[in-house]
Amino acid sequence: TIAATVTDINGVALDGNGDGIPGDDFSLNFRTISADITGPALLSSYPAADGSTTAFDVRDVISVVFDELVVPASVTQAHISLQQLGAELPANSFSYRLTDVNNKTVLGIQATEAFDMDSDYTLTIRAGITDTLGNAMSEDIIIPFRTAPLRYSEMVTIDDFFTPGDWWQPNGSGSTVGIIVPNTRFGFSSEVFVPGVTPRRSAYLMYEWDTSAASHLLREYLAGKAPREVWFDSTYTLQVYIFGDGSNNKFRFALDDGRSGTAAAHEVSQWITIDWLGWKLVEWPLNDPNSVGSWLGNRKLDGGDLRIDSFQMTTADGAATSGMIYLDELRVVKKTPLPVSVAAGEQSPLPKEFRLFQNYPNPFNPGTAIRFDLPEAGNVVLKIFNSMGQEVATLVDGYLQPGSHVVSFEASHLSSGIYYYRLFSQGRILSKRMTLLK
Question: What is the distance between the alpha carbons of residues 254 and 27, in angstroms, rounded to a whole number?
Answer without folding.
Answer: 58
